[in-house]
Design a protein that fits this description.
The complex is a heterodimer of chains A (about 140) and B (about 130). Chain A is of the alpha+beta class and about 140 residues long. Chain A contains three helices and six strands, in the order E-H-E-E-H-E-H-E-E. Chain B has a six-stranded mixed β-sheet, with helices on one face. The longest helix of chain B has 18 residues, at about 55-70. In chain B, about 40% of the residues are buried.
Protein backbone atom coordinates (compact mmCIF):
# COMPACT_ATOMS: atom_id res chain seq x y z
CA UNK A 1 0.00 0.00 0.00
CA UNK A 2 1.64 3.19 -1.19
CA UNK A 3 -0.58 5.63 0.68
CA UNK A 4 -3.19 5.30 3.39
CA UNK A 5 -6.78 5.62 2.24
CA UNK A 6 -8.81 8.42 3.76
CA UNK A 7 -12.50 8.16 4.49
CA UNK A 8 -14.66 11.25 4.08
CA UNK A 9 -18.33 11.76 4.88
CA UNK A 10 -20.44 13.08 2.04
CA UNK A 11 -23.58 15.19 2.32
CA UNK A 12 -26.40 16.18 -0.04
CA UNK A 13 -26.46 19.75 -1.33
CA UNK A 14 -30.11 19.87 -0.26
CA UNK A 15 -29.90 19.78 3.56
CA UNK A 16 -33.50 18.52 3.77
CA UNK A 17 -32.26 15.24 2.31
CA UNK A 18 -29.70 14.74 5.05
CA UNK A 19 -31.95 12.25 6.83
CA UNK A 20 -29.27 11.01 9.19
CA UNK A 21 -28.58 14.51 10.50
CA UNK A 22 -32.26 15.47 10.63
CA UNK A 23 -33.03 12.35 12.67
CA UNK A 24 -29.86 12.61 14.78
CA UNK A 25 -29.02 9.09 13.65
CA UNK A 26 -25.60 7.49 14.15
CA UNK A 27 -24.69 7.33 10.49
CA UNK A 28 -23.83 9.66 7.64
CA UNK A 29 -25.52 9.80 4.22
CA UNK A 30 -22.44 8.27 2.65
CA UNK A 31 -18.70 7.74 2.83
CA UNK A 32 -16.15 8.32 0.13
CA UNK A 33 -13.05 6.14 0.35
CA UNK A 34 -10.52 5.50 -2.40
CA UNK A 35 -12.32 4.89 -5.69
CA UNK A 36 -15.69 4.36 -4.02
CA UNK A 37 -18.71 6.02 -2.46
CA UNK A 38 -20.82 3.91 -0.09
CA UNK A 39 -24.31 5.31 0.51
CA UNK A 40 -26.50 4.59 3.50
CA UNK A 41 -29.91 3.08 2.80
CA UNK A 42 -32.16 5.78 1.38
CA UNK A 43 -35.92 5.97 1.85
CA UNK A 44 -38.59 8.10 0.17
CA UNK A 45 -38.19 11.63 1.51
CA UNK A 46 -39.83 14.63 -0.14
CA UNK A 47 -36.96 16.94 -1.19
CA UNK A 48 -39.21 19.99 -0.71
CA UNK A 49 -40.15 19.28 2.89
CA UNK A 50 -37.73 16.67 4.22
CA UNK A 51 -40.71 14.59 5.34
CA UNK A 52 -41.33 10.95 4.48
CA UNK A 53 -43.32 10.63 1.28
CA UNK A 54 -45.52 7.54 1.21
CA UNK A 55 -47.49 7.36 -2.00
CA UNK A 56 -47.82 4.33 -4.26
CA UNK A 57 -44.69 2.18 -4.45
CA UNK A 58 -43.81 3.56 -7.89
CA UNK A 59 -43.72 7.07 -6.43
CA UNK A 60 -41.68 5.92 -3.43
CA UNK A 61 -39.08 4.28 -5.66
CA UNK A 62 -38.98 7.33 -7.94
CA UNK A 63 -38.50 9.70 -5.01
CA UNK A 64 -35.81 7.51 -3.47
CA UNK A 65 -33.81 7.10 -6.68
CA UNK A 66 -34.19 10.78 -7.51
CA UNK A 67 -32.76 11.61 -4.08
CA UNK A 68 -30.00 9.07 -4.64
CA UNK A 69 -29.08 10.84 -7.87
CA UNK A 70 -28.93 14.13 -5.94
CA UNK A 71 -26.79 12.53 -3.23
CA UNK A 72 -24.29 11.10 -5.70
CA UNK A 73 -24.13 14.27 -7.77
CA UNK A 74 -23.57 16.29 -4.60
CA UNK A 75 -20.44 14.17 -4.12
CA UNK A 76 -19.29 14.52 -7.72
CA UNK A 77 -20.48 11.08 -8.79
CA UNK A 78 -23.66 10.06 -10.64
CA UNK A 79 -26.13 7.23 -11.21
CA UNK A 80 -24.03 6.23 -14.24
CA UNK A 81 -21.14 5.53 -11.85
CA UNK A 82 -23.11 3.16 -9.60
CA UNK A 83 -21.68 -0.36 -9.53
CA UNK A 84 -23.96 -2.17 -7.10
CA UNK A 85 -27.46 -1.56 -5.71
CA UNK A 86 -29.44 -3.17 -2.91
CA UNK A 87 -33.19 -2.70 -3.15
CA UNK A 88 -35.20 -3.70 -0.10
CA UNK A 89 -38.97 -3.75 -0.43
CA UNK A 90 -41.50 -3.96 2.37
CA UNK A 91 -43.59 -6.18 0.09
CA UNK A 92 -41.98 -8.49 -2.48
CA UNK A 93 -45.20 -8.26 -4.51
CA UNK A 94 -44.01 -4.75 -5.49
CA UNK A 95 -41.08 -6.22 -7.43
CA UNK A 96 -42.49 -5.60 -10.92
CA UNK A 97 -43.64 -2.07 -10.14
CA UNK A 98 -40.27 -1.22 -8.57
CA UNK A 99 -38.51 -2.66 -11.61
CA UNK A 100 -40.48 -0.49 -14.01
CA UNK A 101 -39.44 2.73 -12.27
CA UNK A 102 -35.91 1.50 -11.57
CA UNK A 103 -35.37 0.97 -15.30
CA UNK A 104 -36.10 4.67 -15.93
CA UNK A 105 -33.12 5.61 -13.76
CA UNK A 106 -30.72 2.98 -15.13
CA UNK A 107 -31.69 2.67 -18.81
CA UNK A 108 -28.32 1.42 -20.10
CA UNK A 109 -25.51 -0.63 -18.56
CA UNK A 110 -27.29 -0.96 -15.20
CA UNK A 111 -25.39 -1.77 -12.01
CA UNK A 112 -25.24 -5.17 -10.32
CA UNK A 113 -28.25 -5.51 -8.06
CA UNK A 114 -29.93 -7.61 -5.42
CA UNK A 115 -33.60 -7.22 -4.51
CA UNK A 116 -35.37 -8.75 -1.56
CA UNK A 117 -38.04 -8.01 1.00
CA UNK A 118 -37.85 -7.61 4.75
CA UNK A 119 -39.33 -5.44 7.46
CA UNK A 120 -38.69 -1.70 7.07
CA UNK A 121 -39.19 1.08 9.59
CA UNK A 122 -41.68 3.93 9.59
CA UNK A 123 -43.94 2.38 6.98
CA UNK A 124 -41.42 2.93 4.19
CA UNK A 125 -42.22 0.85 1.12
CA UNK A 126 -38.63 0.71 -0.05
CA UNK A 127 -35.08 1.31 1.09
CA UNK A 128 -32.28 1.53 -1.48
CA UNK A 129 -28.52 1.70 -1.00
CA UNK A 130 -25.64 1.63 -3.44
CA UNK A 131 -21.92 1.60 -4.04
CA UNK A 132 -20.70 4.00 -6.74
CA UNK A 133 -17.39 4.96 -8.18
CA UNK A 134 -16.22 8.34 -6.92
CA UNK A 135 -15.58 11.10 -9.43
CA UNK B 1 -7.65 9.47 -12.17
CA UNK B 2 -11.11 8.04 -11.85
CA UNK B 3 -11.69 4.31 -11.67
CA UNK B 4 -13.13 2.50 -14.69
CA UNK B 5 -16.58 0.96 -14.69
CA UNK B 6 -17.14 -2.03 -16.96
CA UNK B 7 -20.19 -4.20 -17.45
CA UNK B 8 -19.48 -7.92 -17.31
CA UNK B 9 -22.17 -9.74 -19.24
CA UNK B 10 -22.78 -13.25 -20.45
CA UNK B 11 -25.14 -15.24 -22.69
CA UNK B 12 -26.74 -16.66 -19.55
CA UNK B 13 -27.50 -13.22 -18.22
CA UNK B 14 -31.17 -13.17 -19.12
CA UNK B 15 -32.11 -15.91 -16.72
CA UNK B 16 -29.31 -15.75 -14.23
CA UNK B 17 -30.26 -12.59 -12.43
CA UNK B 18 -33.58 -11.80 -10.90
CA UNK B 19 -34.69 -8.77 -12.75
CA UNK B 20 -33.65 -9.26 -16.37
CA UNK B 21 -33.07 -6.08 -18.34
CA UNK B 22 -32.77 -3.81 -15.33
CA UNK B 23 -29.70 -5.57 -13.99
CA UNK B 24 -26.20 -6.36 -15.17
CA UNK B 25 -24.93 -9.74 -14.07
CA UNK B 26 -21.75 -8.22 -12.74
CA UNK B 27 -20.00 -4.87 -12.88
CA UNK B 28 -16.29 -4.26 -12.56
CA UNK B 29 -15.45 -1.00 -10.82
CA UNK B 30 -11.93 -0.15 -9.75
CA UNK B 31 -10.28 -3.10 -8.03
CA UNK B 32 -13.51 -4.98 -7.38
CA UNK B 33 -16.09 -7.02 -9.22
CA UNK B 34 -19.65 -6.59 -7.96
CA UNK B 35 -21.91 -9.56 -8.72
CA UNK B 36 -25.70 -9.30 -8.70
CA UNK B 37 -27.87 -11.47 -6.49
CA UNK B 38 -28.00 -14.80 -8.30
CA UNK B 39 -30.76 -17.38 -8.20
CA UNK B 40 -30.58 -21.01 -9.26
CA UNK B 41 -30.78 -21.25 -13.05
CA UNK B 42 -29.76 -23.70 -15.73
CA UNK B 43 -26.65 -22.14 -17.30
CA UNK B 44 -27.63 -23.49 -20.73
CA UNK B 45 -31.26 -22.46 -20.93
CA UNK B 46 -31.39 -19.73 -18.31
CA UNK B 47 -34.48 -21.40 -16.87
CA UNK B 48 -35.02 -21.24 -13.14
CA UNK B 49 -34.16 -24.38 -11.22
CA UNK B 50 -36.36 -24.12 -8.17
CA UNK B 51 -35.53 -26.96 -5.81
CA UNK B 52 -34.38 -27.47 -2.27
CA UNK B 53 -32.22 -24.99 -0.41
CA UNK B 54 -29.29 -27.37 -0.92
CA UNK B 55 -29.84 -27.85 -4.65
CA UNK B 56 -30.40 -24.16 -5.30
CA UNK B 57 -27.27 -23.26 -3.31
CA UNK B 58 -25.21 -25.76 -5.32
CA UNK B 59 -26.50 -24.50 -8.67
CA UNK B 60 -25.93 -20.85 -7.75
CA UNK B 61 -22.36 -21.50 -6.63
CA UNK B 62 -21.60 -23.54 -9.78
CA UNK B 63 -22.91 -20.64 -11.88
CA UNK B 64 -21.10 -18.09 -9.73
CA UNK B 65 -17.80 -19.94 -10.18
CA UNK B 66 -18.23 -19.89 -13.97
CA UNK B 67 -19.29 -16.25 -13.96
CA UNK B 68 -16.30 -15.17 -11.91
CA UNK B 69 -13.87 -17.14 -14.03
CA UNK B 70 -15.30 -15.70 -17.25
CA UNK B 71 -14.72 -12.25 -15.71
CA UNK B 72 -11.11 -13.12 -14.83
CA UNK B 73 -11.79 -13.57 -11.12
CA UNK B 74 -12.50 -16.72 -9.08
CA UNK B 75 -14.17 -18.05 -5.95
CA UNK B 76 -10.86 -17.66 -4.13
CA UNK B 77 -10.86 -13.94 -4.89
CA UNK B 78 -14.22 -13.26 -3.26
CA UNK B 79 -14.01 -10.91 -0.31
CA UNK B 80 -17.65 -10.80 0.82
CA UNK B 81 -20.72 -12.93 0.24
CA UNK B 82 -24.32 -12.12 1.10
CA UNK B 83 -26.65 -15.10 1.27
CA UNK B 84 -30.41 -14.65 1.51
CA UNK B 85 -32.56 -17.64 2.48
CA UNK B 86 -36.31 -18.01 2.44
CA UNK B 87 -36.03 -19.41 5.95
CA UNK B 88 -33.19 -19.28 8.46
CA UNK B 89 -34.19 -22.80 9.54
CA UNK B 90 -32.56 -23.85 6.27
CA UNK B 91 -29.20 -22.25 7.06
CA UNK B 92 -27.49 -25.60 7.84
CA UNK B 93 -28.73 -27.04 4.53
CA UNK B 94 -27.21 -24.09 2.67
CA UNK B 95 -24.02 -24.27 4.68
CA UNK B 96 -23.39 -27.98 4.06
CA UNK B 97 -23.20 -27.25 0.34
CA UNK B 98 -21.48 -23.87 0.72
CA UNK B 99 -18.42 -25.24 2.51
CA UNK B 100 -17.66 -27.55 -0.42
CA UNK B 101 -16.96 -24.56 -2.69
CA UNK B 102 -14.48 -22.52 -0.67
CA UNK B 103 -10.92 -23.23 0.34
CA UNK B 104 -9.45 -21.90 3.55
CA UNK B 105 -9.78 -19.05 4.39
CA UNK B 106 -13.28 -18.57 2.95
CA UNK B 107 -14.67 -15.08 2.30
CA UNK B 108 -16.48 -12.91 4.81
CA UNK B 109 -20.16 -13.74 4.74
CA UNK B 110 -23.58 -12.65 5.96
CA UNK B 111 -26.63 -14.94 5.93
CA UNK B 112 -30.12 -13.52 6.35
CA UNK B 113 -33.67 -14.76 6.13
CA UNK B 114 -35.74 -12.71 3.69
CA UNK B 115 -38.63 -12.81 1.29
CA UNK B 116 -37.28 -13.56 -2.15
CA UNK B 117 -38.87 -12.91 -5.54
CA UNK B 118 -40.70 -15.65 -7.43
CA UNK B 119 -40.66 -18.15 -4.59
CA UNK B 120 -36.93 -18.84 -4.83
CA UNK B 121 -35.32 -20.27 -1.71
CA UNK B 122 -31.79 -18.94 -2.06
CA UNK B 123 -30.14 -15.82 -3.45
CA UNK B 124 -26.41 -15.16 -3.31
CA UNK B 125 -24.40 -12.08 -4.23
CA UNK B 126 -20.75 -11.30 -3.78
CA UNK B 127 -17.99 -8.76 -4.12
CA UNK B 128 -14.71 -10.15 -5.45
CA UNK B 129 -11.31 -8.84 -6.42
CA UNK B 130 -11.45 -8.08 -10.13
Amino acid sequence: MSEALVRTAIAPKNPLLNASRAGNLPHVPGIRVGDYIFLSGMVPVDPQTGERSHGPIAEQVRTTLSNMRHMLESAGSSLERVVRVHVVLADIAHMAEMDRVYHEFFPVDPPARMVWSMQLRFGNGCEIECVALAA
Amino acid sequence: MSARREIVSSPQHAGNVMARAATSEAVRGGDFLFVSGLIATDPQSGMRMAGTTASETRQILINLKQLLERAGSSLDKIVKVNVLLHSMLEAPNMNDVYVQFFSDPPPARTVCGARLPDGMKVMIECTALA
